[in-house]
Amino acid sequence: MTGRKVLIVDDDPIHLKLTRILLSGKDFEVETAETAEYALEMIRSFQPSLIITDYQLPDFDGLELARRLKTNAATQSIPVVLMTSISQGIDEAIAKDAGCAGFIAKPIRAQTFAEYVNRYLKDSSTTPRAFSGGGALALVVNDDPVERRILEEQLKASGFNIAAASDGADGLDQARRLKPAVIVGDILMPKLDGFKMCIAIREDVDLQSIPVVLTTSGSIQKNDELMAQSIGANAFVLRTPDMKDVLDAVRTSLIEGARNPSRTNPELIDSLRRYFLEEGERQTMRLIDQLQSSVNRNALRRLSHRWAGVAATFGYPKISEVARELELLAQRGTLDEIQIRPVLVELSELFMEAVGRK
Q1: Comparing C-alpha atoms, which of 233, 238, 241, 242 is closest to residue 217?
Q2: According to the 3-state scheme, what is the secondary structure of 106-175?
Q3: Quick check: 100 pLDDT over 90?
Q4: 5-130 and 137-256 agree in CATH topology
Q5: What letter does residue 232 receive in the DSSP assignment?
Q6: Which CATH architecture has domain 137-256?
Q7: What's the burial of 162, exposed, middle or buried (CB within 10 Å: 0-12/13-18/19+)?
């Protein structure tokens, strides 16, 4: 079993047991350590081919463990992979400087954990791709030329080659032609929105193995995340000026691989649809009440952007159309109550009608 020896370092005994089971069942030889110091002792006798360490450990963290291993001639050639959640905010450059070969996102996915551990073992030269594109092709799909260009530049700086599309239908066509390593798409686009584009990708046998990251400039609610998961998106994240969350999601999606959709559960989709409609009804009525005092223009723009994208996916084109009109009004500058009120009232009535209360 030479070459398939993995040392897992984690102070959570349940997580250690889970990772051991997942890897041992795939013919890996696995040893575990609950502290960084014990891991250093284990390495002498076990001589692992790969070390996977949690970031937070009782004595010193996973980054320090990687640093010590990389400064030791006897261990510096062993790839070290850091287990961390995106919420912990570990900077890529710092992790790379510490000697980490890449990341494994927590919580781990049982279905694919052994597969991408095996990727690190097969060829150590592939590890830099966890931190950069490594020349891989990323397809950026967004109808906003400014936001599309910003993301293209950020991905280029991370080592990706770039292809771009200005709407979902074109994005789907280019995906079929180019077979990119990852697809990053906005949820609100003409011809085919991001949600429907993701559904089409997951239904296409030639594309279904490609990770898909969905993005929005609007707010993200819990039901949006559940819907994204149900259609097989790897992530649904906000676009920020530095695109950090998007880049983090792209990095993680390449490690995890494409996710399987769970939309076969009609009760989940019905529940998400009803939640969206009822939430929209409440929010539009609240906004109408607030018009005489103050409404945050940016918040309204983000919210209406979300309504437009999600409504199109759930099959409410009129709600999507009116929400898009509201978004355009919010983008123009100072909110004019005379213009905003009738659009909000119409949108509220559409939500009420769709939810079955009118």
Answers
A1: 238
A2: CCCCCCCHHHHHHHHHHCHHHHHHHCCCCCCEEEEECCCHHHHHHHHHHHHHCCCEEEEECCHHHHHHHH
A3: no
A4: yes
A5: T
A6: 3-Layer(aba) Sandwich (3.40)
A7: middle
Dist CA 258 CA 188 (whole Å): 21
d(CA 30, CA 22): 10
Question: Strand pairing partners for 215?
Answer: 186, 237
Q: Which amino acid is at 350?
A: L
CA proximity to 313, closest of 246, 236, 204, 247: 236
CB within 8 A of 15, min separation 6: which ones?
54
Q: pLDDT tens-digit profile of 1-52?
A: 455 899 999 988 888 888 888 888 788 899 999 999 999 988 888 889 899 9
Q: What is the residue extent of each domain of the chain?
A: 5-130, 137-256, 266-355
Peptide bond just before 107 cis, omega within 30 deg: yes
Q: How many CB atoms lie within 10 A of CB 315?
A: 11
Instruction: Assess contact for 20 and 41: CB atoms under 8 A.
Output: no
In angstroms, the CA 313 to CA 227 distance is 10
Check residue 125 and give its pLDDT.
39
39, 66, 68, 170 from 60: Cα distances, Å: 11, 11, 11, 49
- The 10s digit of each residue's pLDDT in 262-274 is 644 556 667 777 8
CATH number of 5-130: 3.40.50.2300
Q: Closest Cα to residue 61, out of 112, 10, 109?
A: 10
In angstroms, the CA 18 to CA 104 distance is 15
Q: Do the Cβ atoms of 117 and 142 come closer than 8 Å?
A: no
